[in-house]
Write a structure and sequence with these properties.
Length: about 80
């Protein structure tokens, strides 16, 4: 499976890029597992994802909890909590 990863705000700044294409192994089946796998790939990913409680996600443009299944996701966005009015 190939997934287009999108990063926003300070997540993007820490990783150093707004997007990347990844091919996680088949045992990566949830958003949390994807984040864990990415964190193990490089020091910048590990730093960006070190506090999972401060991360939010969207799968194919739908907000989801980190424990959500990836299914056949084509796009996963990772970002800090959204605030505003």
């Amino acid at each position: 499976m190939t997934i287009e990863m999108l990063y926003f705000a300070w997540v993007r700044e820490r990783i150093g890029q707004a997007a990347e294409t990844v091919s996680p192994p088949t045992d990566v089946t949830t958003v949390r597992a994807l984040i864990d796998w990415l964190a193990a790939q490089s020091a910048v990913h590990a730093a960006a994802f070190e506090n999972r409680d401060r991360l939010r996600a969207a799968v194919d443009q739908l907000f989801v909890p980190l424990d959500a299944p990836l299914g056949s996701a084509r796009e996963v966005a990772i970002f800090p909590p959204v605030t505003g009015g």
